[in-house]
Amino acid sequence: MITVIMLKSITSLRPFTIISLLMCLTVIISNGDLTSHGHKKVISNFPKEKYIDDYLTSLEKIIEFCVKHKLYIDLNFEFGLFLVAVNLKNILEVKADDMPLTLKYRIEQLLVKTDVVNEYFRYMVRKTKKNIAYDEDRKITRLFFNETIWPKYMQRFNTMLLKKTKVYTPEQLERIYGKWENYEANVDDFEKYKPSPDDSDACIALLGEQPTAEGSHIVEFRCKAPQECRDGIERGSDYGYGLTHRVLYLLLSRFARGCSVFSLKEDKSKMDRYCKKAFNEAQFIAANGYKKPDLMMEQIVICGLIGHAQFIQHEWIKNFLKLQTHLGCFTENVDGPASNEMRLKELPDDAWTLQRFTSSIMNGGCNGHTTALAAALLSSAIRYILENNYSY
């Protein structure tokens, strides 16, 4: 099952359809006001220039791990690495003359190594052409083979989107999402996902079959999206991976194919609205000891691509960095990597495959999906710092 990140989209978890209503009823501040304590706390937590070395060092360790262990770079993992290139190549080009030479060199070298891994993945995908079992997955890979197209549609981080985002107290968040144990059980219950992961994959694969609409950053083109796919986006779940994947489908339509599912205006409105809900859910996860780091990082990565700066919180990133092992890969174990360090090794039976059936890698000591998300997240945070700390 694809989770990108989770490219196996999960778009409906019915037990939480009441969340939207509760969020509407629980209002802390009026839109346009950034003077509340909650909003001030979010603003004070935006990454500062002094943190860029920590972020880069961690990202460099991830990329070094990928270079040494390419066999783990499957469809999920590759999407995270693709987003590293998307986040950093364009901003590097724009800011090359303004940033310190040492910083520029480090990012350039990181991107060279990222390209090596990305090219390896694409080479391996080409080798699967005659394997019918990989047909749907190959169609999905077409959506992230060209990182030069995506920056045309990416939006600069916009701190003013926080004005339209409600900030809740931990007590209010619990009233919305319920007790942590119940919330976690619902997030983890894949049997309740509607549409099914297979149906969601089919929608994304159909998107991969469409050609890229040339000139679509000027003229609007409509995606060829079946009604069942549109229904999943419009009436999917309001929490968990289901919520992030509703954004993901709309994002892939625009960024990778240059088309809109409903209309440019409606697609953007939906993505912004879903990301506002995802931000509150991320706050709920953070308030409960970051016990769902994979989901939380996915929320940050996906909504960051459409400019939601409020997700780029240094305190959150600092907690995620505790999950990095000495080899560079990340564990999903919130107790940290210490208990897994002894078993970190490739196993004799490990081999490259386009779609791994488990995210567990390195003898169970790391999680490939979480590592990919961490790479994409760090590149987003670095992009935020570059956008806001040098002339533009």
From TrEMBL:
It comes from the Eukaryota. GO terms for cellular component: cytosol; membrane. InterPro entries: DUF4735. Pfam families: DUF4735. This is Uncharacterized protein.
